[in-house]
């Protein structure tokens, strides 16, 4: 950062801290995106990267632009939200879904699945493919939600660079896929587009775990590597939404590094598959 | 611990220093008791043996001495006897010798016999004394000699030789012998006496010894017993103390069990110990660094938890000493105990440290009012170590958890960094790719640009051309538009002219036809007259038609001006009566007209137009009525409007035709004008005129019984007036909610005084009690007697308030509840009962003259009887109640046609208190449901006789029976539609599959435990709130565009009780289809749309935008249902075309008020 202003590192970091909080508040009040409950360390790193990208010396400069140029905010949102995933990421998780969750889901006449924090849609498509392989897709509706409208558009398009398909295919095979991934996409012009019939069963929607409420009763919530960006309070809020949204004995899957332990909802779920972080909501009367 | 007084202990495995216990810690199996006890026993046994031996010996000696004594005494007696016997014999002999009388010989004779006996006895007695034996032998010789001498003399005397006898005596031989006997006897007696003396002293000595031995032994035994008792009591006390201590330790380890955090542990420990020690107050402090922090307190005021250091104060001292301290006479102010009514000071304190491995982990401190016994201190000493260990463990665990949490956070942090890194990577790749692409693009763009430049020029030219063309076409369009306007004007003008031109010749035709028909000259025959009449009437019709067409075109062209003036209603009616009455009389119809009280005398409107409308309506009524009556009624409909209702008893109009009849050139039925004549324009004109006057016309009609057309006009015409709401379009609530109550309102005073003798003062526990709530005294008496007949006790109350109170107070087994109560409705009572957790299990049977069956059953009544009720009905009601409350087991009905499946279901669900009834067909199921109450039904969908839907619908229609929760268990997959349909009846649908049995079991269990309240309280609340609303939703149609079954069900149950019809669309596309359909069928017009946002296929935003694109839907109210909470999300809804929005989860109150606000009036 500007060396001539921030000569004293302690002062510099204090200044950064204040600017950081101001920016987050400003975003909340102007754009109604609530990042106040996000893990501060990660957010700080993301903002530092954003400073470079937007060629701003300080967060105040960035704030100025964000406040007055909505387009800058839209671009900043991409920086603030970590949009990275792959299809059938952590194949073990999907295998565990096949073995332990799908057999129970078969007993419901219709199914709803909520992919919270769907990013560019990889997970939603993975689940759709898995459900199709299991014969459940025709009676399933997948809600894929995220806070970033731009990534939602990407997700809705279902187009991925062809270089990534190889990795997806390996994952899919390891997840116990009974068909070939190539059945579900068409590759051309360096891109692969996923089958539109999958998308018929997916609703992509803008939904914030920080501010919005429950919208439907679902049998499975998959929310992986989202809670890691939240602080305790926000993690609890998200878990409350999942809990309220799930039907009795509904299922919750979270990321490999995440855990319900230490959360307020530890007692409300039973651990179904510990190593793959799949939980089942207890059927209290 | 070591320097505490140790009570005597039995060796136990826990005492490592026990001398007897082998190092292995196992008890020697052969050893029965402790050696000390064993020695004690040995001592006691040997003492007893010695005492016994000694006693025996002395006893024996005593006995021997006493025997010897006895013998000596007896011997003495015998010796004396011998001497006296001999003396007696001598005396007898002497007597005889002197007298010769035989009687004197008697002593001699007896002596002769006794002597040998005496001698023999003496010999045996003296057998042990050789000296005496000797003497006895001499004595015997002498005695026999004496006796011989005596016998000789007696013999001589008998023979008469008295002298010889005397001589013999005189010889003195006898005396010598006697003397020698006496001396010898004397000697012997003296000896014996001496012996007696010696023996007696020997006996006395022996007796003394024996006494001494006995008492000595007794004393010894007493001492031993005393010792044993002392030892036993000491051990008992020790054991009691030990068990108290041990129980304390055990209890403490109990409360310390589990993974407790430090605060919980501290609280548990101090609470437990305070109660166990009977302390009034207590606290526990845990070492933290060099200070101690309070983590648990008992009866201690919160706050003032000042950390303290070891050595600070007494507590600190105890830590320093590492041993419990007992402080007597604690200074006042020390650990004060306070309660709501006072405060006191602890007089004694116990302070104990808890250390393990030489480190104090905690200190406990207790205050007592009374004396503290040593055991308490001992207990505190003993629990020190386990407590310290538990605290250490808890602290360790806390640290571990902290570390784990930290690790978790770090892992998450790591993960997020990793993710970010990946993003950065991806971005970089993306950028480099973009860079590559852009370079290539740049190059091609360069060449493209040049190309484009040339193209641009071409395009500019083309554009110029197009612009010209556009201007031209614009001009053409403008001209066309003007032309069109002109054409329209021409049309209107033409119509006006045309009708005028038509009217003129027609007029003359009519006049001429009339003249002809009058046949004044009488030169026309009957047929010709009729022809003329026909010409006349046809012309008349034609004229009417022309007038109508003209009117209509003028109205449509906006050519009619309203001239508002005060119009007297009375005179309007008068003129109408004059006009219509003759026509009615002609058709033999009754015509009545009237103005209801409260109607203003005059209104401001266009007199002519009003007359025209009313004439039209009345003419219409005349036309379609063949018999019966026609009625015109004017009344004030609302503060600002007045209505004119024209009612007829004519043919009526089918409901689907109600809209059609107002359309120009259309009649209710194509065949109608053939039958009744007329142009069919009258109503269209009337409607248009009514609108022009700021009012409206509505129709209500039932085919076959007549129609009512109601014209509603504002009291005050205003040019900008809007059409008023027509009352006829909204049929009034068929049942005014207060009607029944109002009728009863007058009665409370009279009723309150009445009271029926019931059982409330002689309730016997264990008897079944029924609460009868009935204000009608005779009927209440009947119910009471019936209850008695069926072995119930009965409490009778007459008001709703009493009913609720009595249910709380007496907790009856069942309640018979009337709806029509003086203070408030029985339904309210039922609702209150069902909402009170203490009364909601009580089965309630309702009775009323009005049919509130649905409401009652919905609120959880077990049954409903319509009054007047037959006796059997009442018996049945009581029986049903009885069955319900005596049913302790849960009952499940299984409806399944496959016997194997049925059996396996039965197996699956069977458990102790579940009674299972399994049937194979729908009809059986209905029969079972009518006969008994079930808590849950498991239903297979494919049944031989009825489909699952039909069964459920029938079940819902069996209104006397409450509807149990139904679980549909089916092998068939269901379409969304089917699922939605089922959602009304079934709480849960399970598709048969590998894992379905366990889900079924879960769900059944859930319902069996939920039956306490048939409907969740929130749901009941919702229904009730909904029911109490005004009827602004009555008859309205609401399109709910929503995908979630839960919400659909909730919304339906809010709106349907209000009389609104709910149509469901599951996504935007279906919503559009639904709306499109409603245009084709005006009767099913949608009044409002509730639009969810997140939906498949077409989301809410798109759907709303699509709806707003159509002009006819521009004003259709749409309320968006959104899960999004932020302001701009909601603004987005408004921007997309919503009139308003409401956030999920839905608040029923708020939703209803929103709907009322936006519902078109």
Major beta-sheet overview of chain B:
5 strands, antiparallel
- Terminal-residue CA separation of chain A: 57 Å
- The largest sheet of chain A has its strands arranged as 6-2-1-7-8-10-9
**Rg from alpha-carbon coordinates of chain A:** 20 Å
Describe the structure.
The complex is a heterodimer of chains A (285) and B (1161). With 285 residues, chain A is an alpha/beta fold. Chain A is 44% helix and 19% strand. A 7-stranded mixed beta sheet of chain A has the order 6-2-1-7-8-10-9. In chain A, strand 9 (269-273) and strand 10 form a beta hairpin. The model of chain A has no long low-confidence stretch (mean pLDDT 88). With 1161 residues, chain B is of the alpha/beta class. Helix content of chain B is 56%, strand content 15%. Chain B has 31 helices and 29 strands. In chain B, the strands form 7 sheets. Chain B has a 5-stranded antiparallel beta sheet. In chain B, helix 16 (777-789) links the parallel strand 15 (769-773) and strand 16 (793-797). The longest helix of chain B is centred in the middle third of the chain and has 145 residues, at 374-518. Classes of the chains: A alpha/beta (285), B alpha/beta (1161).
Question: What's the short version?
Answer:
With 285 residues, chain A is of the alpha/beta class.
Summarize the SSE layout with pairings:
The complex is a heterodimer of chains A (285) and B (1161).
Chain A: H1 9-31, H2 40-53, H3 59-68, H4 70-80, H5 91-105, E1 111-116, H6 122-133, E2 140-146, H7 149-157, E3 159-161, H8 162-174, E4 185-188, E5 191-194, H9 196-199, E6 202-206, E7 218-223, H10 232-245, E8 246-254, E9 269-273, E10 278-281
Helix pairs in contact in A: 1-3, 3-4
Chain B: H1 35-99, H2 106-125, H3 130-158, H4 162-170, H5 173-255, H6 262-277, E1 281-288, E2 291-298, H7 313-321, E3 325-327, E4 336-339, E5 342-345, E6 348-356, E7 359-368, H8 374-518, H9 526-556, E8 565-568, H10 569-586, E9 590-595, E10 602-605, H11 607-624, E11 629-638, E12 641-648, H12 672-676, H13 682-692, E13 696-702, E14 706-714, H14 739-745, H15 748-753, E15 769-773, H16 777-789, E16 793-797, H17 800-810, E17 814-818, H18 826-835, E18 844-848, H19 853-858, E19 863-866, H20 871-885, E20 890-895, H21 899-909, E21 914-919, H22 922-931, E22 936-939, H23 948-957, E23 966-970, H24 976-983, E24 986-991, H25 996-1010, H26 1017-1027, E25 1037-1041, H27 1045-1055, E26 1061-1065, H28 1068-1080, E27 1088-1092, H29 1100-1109, E28 1118-1122, H30 1127-1136, E29 1140-1143, H31 1148-1158
Helix pairs in contact in B: 1-2, 1-3, 1-5, 2-3, 3-4, 3-5, 5-6, 5-8, 6-8, 8-9, 9-13, 10-11, 11-13, 17-18, 22-23, 26-27, 28-29
């Amino acid at each position: 950062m500007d060396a001539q202003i921030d000569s004293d590192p302690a002062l510099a970091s204090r200044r950064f801290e204040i600017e950081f909080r101001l920016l987050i508040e400003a975003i909340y009040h102007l754009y109604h995106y609530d990042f106040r409950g996000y893990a501060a360390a990660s957010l700080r790193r993301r903002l530092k990267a954003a400073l470079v990208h937007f060629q701003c010396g300080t967060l105040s400069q960035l704030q100025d632009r964000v406040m007055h140029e909505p387009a800058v905010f839209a671009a900043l949102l991409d920086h603030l939200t970590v949009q990275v995933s792959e299809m059938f990421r952590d194949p073990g998780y999907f295998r565990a879904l096949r073995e332990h969750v799908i057999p129970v889901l078969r007993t419901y006449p219709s199914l709803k699945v909520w992919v919270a924090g769907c990013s560019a849609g990889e997970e939603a498509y993975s689940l759709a493919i898995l459900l199709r392989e299991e014969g459940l897709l025709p009676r399933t509706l997948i809600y894929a939600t995220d806070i970033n409208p731009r990534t939602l558009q990407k997700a809705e398009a279902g187009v991925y660079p062809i270089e990534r398909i190889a990795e997806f295919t390996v994952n899919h095979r390891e997840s116990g896929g009974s068909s070939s991934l190539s059945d579900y996409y068409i590759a051309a012009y360096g891109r692969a587009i996923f089958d539109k019939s999958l998308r018929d069963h997916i609703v992509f929607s803008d939904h914030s775990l920080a501010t919005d409420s429950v919208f439907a009763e679902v049998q499975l919530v998959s929310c992986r590597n989202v809670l890691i960006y939240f602080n305790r309070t926000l993690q609890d809020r998200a878990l409350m939404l999942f809990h309220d949204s799930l039907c009795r004995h509904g299922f919750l899957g979270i990321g490999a590094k995440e855990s319900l332990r230490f959360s307020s909802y530890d007692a409300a779920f039973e651990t179904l598959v510990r190593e793959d972080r799949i939980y089942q909501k207890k059927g209290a009367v | 611990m070591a320097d505490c007084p140790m009570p005597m202990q039995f060796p136990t495995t826990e005492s490592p220093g026990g001398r007897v216990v082998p190092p292995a810690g196992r008890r020697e199996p052969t050893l029965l008791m402790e050696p000390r006890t064993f020695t004690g026993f040995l001592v006691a046994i040997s003492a007893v043996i010695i005492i016994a031996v000694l006693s025996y010996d002395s006893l024996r000696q005593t006995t021997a001495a006493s025997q010897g004594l006895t013998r000596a005494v007896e011997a003495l007696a015998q010796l004396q006897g011998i001497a006296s016997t001999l003396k007696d014999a001598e005396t007898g002999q002497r007597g005889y010798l002197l007298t010769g009388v035989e009687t004197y010989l008697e002593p001699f004779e007896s002596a002769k016999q006794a002597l040998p006996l005496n001698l023999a006895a003496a010999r045996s007695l003296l057998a042990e004394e050789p000296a005496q034996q000797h003497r006895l032998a001499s004595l015997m010789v002498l005695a026999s000699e004496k006796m011989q001498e005596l016998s000789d003399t007696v013999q001589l005397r008998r023979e008469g030789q008295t002298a010889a006898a005397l001589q013999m005596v005189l010889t003195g031989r006898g005396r010598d012998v006697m003397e020698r006997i006496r001396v010898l006897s004397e000697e012997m007696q003296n000896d014996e006496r001496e012996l007696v003396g010696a023996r007696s002293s020997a006996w006395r000595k022996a007796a003394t010894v024996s006494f001494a031995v006995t008492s000595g032994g007794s004393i010894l035994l007493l001492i031993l017993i005393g010792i044993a008792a002392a030892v036993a009591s000491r051990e008992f006390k020790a054991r009691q103390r030990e068990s108290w201590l041990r129980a304390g330790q055990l209890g403490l380890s109990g409360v310390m069990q589990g993974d407790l955090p430090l605060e919980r542990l501290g609280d548990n420990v101090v609470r437990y110990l305070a109660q166990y020690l009977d302390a009034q107050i207590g606290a526990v402090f845990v070492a933290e660094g060099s200070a101690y922090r309070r983590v648990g307190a008992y009866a201690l005021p919160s706050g003032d938890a000042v950390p303290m250091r070891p050595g600070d104060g007494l507590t600190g001292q105890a830590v320093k000493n590492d041993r419990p301290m007992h402080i007597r006479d604690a200074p006042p102010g020390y650990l004060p105990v306070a309660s709501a009514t006072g405060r006191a000071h602890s007089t004694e304190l116990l302070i104990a440290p808890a250390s393990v491995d030489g480190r104090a982990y905690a200190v406990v401190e207790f205050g007592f009012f009374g004396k503290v016994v040593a055991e308490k201190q001992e207990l505190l000493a003993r629990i020190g170590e386990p407590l310290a260990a538990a605290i250490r463990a808890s602290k360790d665990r806390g640290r571990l958890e902290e570390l784990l949490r930290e690790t978790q956070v770090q892992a998450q942090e790591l993960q997020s960094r990793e993710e970010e890194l990946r993003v950065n990577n991806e971005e970089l790749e993306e950028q480099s790719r973009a860079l590559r692409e852009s370079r290539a693009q740049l190059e091609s763009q360069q060449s493209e640009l040049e190309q484009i430049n040339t193209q641009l020029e071409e395009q500019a030219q083309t554009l110029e051309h197009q612009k010209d063309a556009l201007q031209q076409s614009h001009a053409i369009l403008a001209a066309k538009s003007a032309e069109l306007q002109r054409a329209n004007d021409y049309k209107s003008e033409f119509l006006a002219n045309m009708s005028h031109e038509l009217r003129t010749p027609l007029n003359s035709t009519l006049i001429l036809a009339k003249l002809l028909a009058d046949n004044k000259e009488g030169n026309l025959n009957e047929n010709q007259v009729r022809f003329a009449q026909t010409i006349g009437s046809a012309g008349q019709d034609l004229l009417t038609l022309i007038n109508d067409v003209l009117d209509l075109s003028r109205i449509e062209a906006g050519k009619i001006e309203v001239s508002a003036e005060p119009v007297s209603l009375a005179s309007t009616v008068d003129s109408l009566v004059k006009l219509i009455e003759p026509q009615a009389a002609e058709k033999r119809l009754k015509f009545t007209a009237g103005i209801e009280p409260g109607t203003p005398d005059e209104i401001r409107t266009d007199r002519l137009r009003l007359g025209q409308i009313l004439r039209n309506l009345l003419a219409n009524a005349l036309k379609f009525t063949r018999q019966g009556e026609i009625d015109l009624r004017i009344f004030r409909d609302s503060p600002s409007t007045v209505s004119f209702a024209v009612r007829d008893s004519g043919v009526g109009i089918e409901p689907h035709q109600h809209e059609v009849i107002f359309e120009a050139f259309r009649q209710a039925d194509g065949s109608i004008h053939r039958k009744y004549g007329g142009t069919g324009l009258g109503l269209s004109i009337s409607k248009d005129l009514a609108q022009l006057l700021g009012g409206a016309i509505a129709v209500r009609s039932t085919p076959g019984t007549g129609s009512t057309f109601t014209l509603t006009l504002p009291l005050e015409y205003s040019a900008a007036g809007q059409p008023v709401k027509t009352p006829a379009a909204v049929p009034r609530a068929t049942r005014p909610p207060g009607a029944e109550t109002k009728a009863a309102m007058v009665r409370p005073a009279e009723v309150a005084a009445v009271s029926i003798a019931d059982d409330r003062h002689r309730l016997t526990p264990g008897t079944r009690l029924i609460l009868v709530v009935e204000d009608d005294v005779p009927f209440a008496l009947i119910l009471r007697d019936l209850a008695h007949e069926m072995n119930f006790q009965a409490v009778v109350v007459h008001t709703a308030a009493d009913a609720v109170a009595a249910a709380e107070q007496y907790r009856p087994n069942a309640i018979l509840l009337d709806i029509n109560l003086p203070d408030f409705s029985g339904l309210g009572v039922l609702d209150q009962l069902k909402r009170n957790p203490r009364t909601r299990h009580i089965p309630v049977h309702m009775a009323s003259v009005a049919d509130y069956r649905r409401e009652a059953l919905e609120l959880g009544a077990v049954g409903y009887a319509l009054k007047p009720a037959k006796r059997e009905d009442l018996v049945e009601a009581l029986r049903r109640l009885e069955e319900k409350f005596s049913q302790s087991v849960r009952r499940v009905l299984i409806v399944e046609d496959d016997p194997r499946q049925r059996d396996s279901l039965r197996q699956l669900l069977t458990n102790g208190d579940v009674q299972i009834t399994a049937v194979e067909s729908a009809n059986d199921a209905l029969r079972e449901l009518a006969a008994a109450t079930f808590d849950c039904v498991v239903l297979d969908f494919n049944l031989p006789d009825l489909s699952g839907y039909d069964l459920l619908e029938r079940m819902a229609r069996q209104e006397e029976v409450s509807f149990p929760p139904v679980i549909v268990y089916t092998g068939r997959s269901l379409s969304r539609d089917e699922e939605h349909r089922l959602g009304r009846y079934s709480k849960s649908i399970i598709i048969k599959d590998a894992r379905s049995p366990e889900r079924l079991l879960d769900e059944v269990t859930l319902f069996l435990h939920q039956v306490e309240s048939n409907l969740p309280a929130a749901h009941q609340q919702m229904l009730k709130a909904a029911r109490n609303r005004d009827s602004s939703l009555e008859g309205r149609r609401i399109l709910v565009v929503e995908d979630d079954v839960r919400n659909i069900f909730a919304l339906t149950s809010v709106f349907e009780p209000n009389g609104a019809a709910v149509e469901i669309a599951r996504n935007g596309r279906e919503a559009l289809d639904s709306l499109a359909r409603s245009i084709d069928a005006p009767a099913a017009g949608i009044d409002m749309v509730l639009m969810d946002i997140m939906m498949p296929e077409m989301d809410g935003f798109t759907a709303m935008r699509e709806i707003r694109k159509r002009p006819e839907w521009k004003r259709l109210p749409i309320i968006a249902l959104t899960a999004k909470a932020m302001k701009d999300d909601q603004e987005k809804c408004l921007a997309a075309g919503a009139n308003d929005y409401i956030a999920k989860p839905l608040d029923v109150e708020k939703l209803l008020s929103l709907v009322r606000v936006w519902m078109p009036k």
